[in-house]
Structure formats: structure tokens, C-alpha cells
Amino acid sequence: MAGVDGTNRDAPSAARSRLRSARIARSLSQQQLAALAGVSRQAVAAVEAERSEPSLRLALTLAEALGMTVESLFGADTSIAPITGEALAEVGPVHSRAALVTVGTRVVAAPLRGDTGSRSGFAPATALVTPDPGAFAPLAPLRPTVVVAGCDPALSLLETPLAHLDPPFAFLWRSCGSREALELAAAGLVHAAGIHVRDDAPGRYNHDALARIGSGPHRLVGFASWRQGLAMRADLAETVGGLEDAVNLGLRLVNREAGSEARSVIDRIAAAAGVRAEEIPGYGAEVHGHLDVAAAIANGLADFGVASEPAALAYGLAFVALTDERFDLVVTPGLGDTPEVQALVRVLTSPWLRRQLQCIDGYDALTCGERVDLGTSRT
């Protein structure tokens, strides 16, 4: 069936979706584009969602409003103009792979390299880095994507239920420590930041850290609780009861990055034991994530490290508990009403997610989906 440009309508559903990418590249909302084109927002939404074919008049007015030709907007050419965006981290050289998503009205690029680019396989890229600073060449139209930063490996569980919502959402997880997650939320580059940061008040977590992302109102949603402590080789279970034993035996540490709560824990217990943390063998060897700590130990690259109990149990390691911790998700201010955050909250409150967390040894999922009252203390 012929379209407005004489091409086959059945082939270029991606071409119709190109409208959304072109709109986002110009920082326009659906309502703003509709106003520029003199059409209804519903007409723009219907074309972007591929619920209707654009008439010749609608195609012409939309193309004119975007400063494009009908052929370039709705034609068979599947190439997409570069989009300007902000990077979650250093994106690497030209033609490096990236995941391109929208966070509110902003376009955000996440590098796909190293551990971020693979989960027992390569993650699909949606863009490539171009020679122009801050410009990315999309490989496909942008999809609605929930973007979360944080260190808990169970965050990857969010991908499946988000994909099964109607409409579905893609999921992008930036694995990083609590400090970086909060910085990304403060910059408006993620929809939510996962944190487990000890407050000054005994037994309380994550309240004080909210000051790092500016004034409220803040929304804090529970995810899970766990114990954090020393993960170590299984054969050390009977000989190492704490950091002093590990230091006296000359064991090698695998550390987490600066700004992570695990790094803070090793620094605190070292200071309490009168040990200079920087002098512990391996202190400068950093990995990003609880499972990475456990994997390094299990593979003989280190003898011990600070990690969550679920990570230690997943690799069959010995574990000495040091703290009981709570991991919550901070919704980025100003994004609470976005479809992405609403989808995230819907998944967090689902029985499916709670059951998934509960069946992983070491997790307590009783707080999953619970909205935290920031006016009262809690344990």
C-alpha cells in the first residue's frame, strides 16, 4: 500500500517512528510540535505510536514544522540524523557503542563497554558516537526507557516486568556506587538513583543523602534490605572473623570505587581497627559492583572484599556480616509524573518483583515498593 511519499506503508514503521526521534532532537514535546504544525497533540501521538498513517497534509505540516522534507521524515531512508545528548559517563572514541534514551525532556547517552556493555553477552546498542562532541548517531528510533543508577545487582530484575507492561518500556541500568547515582539524579540524567548510605542517626539509611540532589520534594521508594560485610574465600571461614584477621594474614583486598558505600565501610572498619586502609594489599584494585567483588574473589584475583551477602552467597563465599543495610530508590525531582517513573513504581509494587527478590538468598524484600516517610526516622 502506497504512503504519502509513494513508498510501501508496510515496510517503514521505523520511518514513522522517526518522527519521535526528530522531535526529541529538537527538544520539543508532542504538544509543542502540534502547536508549531497547527494540528492536535493526539494526531502527533497517534503517528508516533504507529496507531495511524499520516495524511499527506499532516505529513507536510509535521515535516515543515521540524525543518525537514517529507521524504526524510517519512520516506524509506532508514538513516536518522544525529541527536545531541548528555553522557552518563565518558563515552569513548568515535563509533563507540552507546544506549540513547530520554529522561524527561533530556536525551541521555550511556556508554556500552566493559561490564556495562555485557551481561554474559553484548547488550544491543541504539546509537554510535559521532566525531561531533555530544552528538550520537541513532541506530534505531528512541524507545521509552526507564533509566536507573545504583549498585544492587537485583536492579536487573526490573527489565522483564517493564517489558511486559502495556505500553512496554525498555530498561537501562547504570551500575555504580551510591554517590555517583545521586550525582546523576542531581543532574537529571536518570529517572531514579538506588542508594544505601548510612545516616548520622544510628540505624537509619538514605535520609541525609537526599541533600545531595537539592531541595525537595523528594520521593524515596523501598527496594530491598541486606547485610553487608566481608566476603572471602570459602577456606577462610574458620580463620577470618574480621578485618584485623585479614590484615594479619596478609590477605589481598578487592576494593570498590570511591563514593560507594562498600568503600566507606572498609575505610570505617580500618580506622576503628587502627589500620591504614591505603596500606592493605589490593586497596587500589577497584571493581564496580557487589557481584564483581565476589567474582574477583571466586576467580582467585583477591582473597576478600566488602560486598552484600546475596553476592557472596551467589559465588559460594564465606561471609562475615558487618552492617544491616537498606537499599532505596530516589526518584529524580521533577520526573515523578513522567510515564517512565510511573511504570517504575508500578513494577516496584508488583508481587512478581517481591517474589523474585525473596527467592535470592540474602535479600529481604519486605520494603519493596514501600514509599518511605521522610519525616520520621526508621531502622
Notable traits:
3 domains, D-Maltodextrin-Binding Protein, domain 2, 29% helix, 379 residues, 13 helices, six-stranded mixed beta sheet, elongated, alpha/beta
Structure description:
29% of the residues lie in helices and 20% in strands. By secondary structure, the protein is of the alpha/beta class. The longest helix is centred in the N-terminal third of the chain and has 13 residues. The N terminus is likely disordered.
Summarize the structure.
The chain has helices spanning 13-25, 30-37, 41-48, 56-65, 70-74, 159-163, 178-186, 243-248, 261-272, 290-298, 309-314, 339-348, 351-358; strands at 83-84, 86-87, 97-103, 106-111, 127-129, 135-138, 145-150, 170-175, 192-195, 219-232, 255-256, 286-287, 304-308, 318-331.
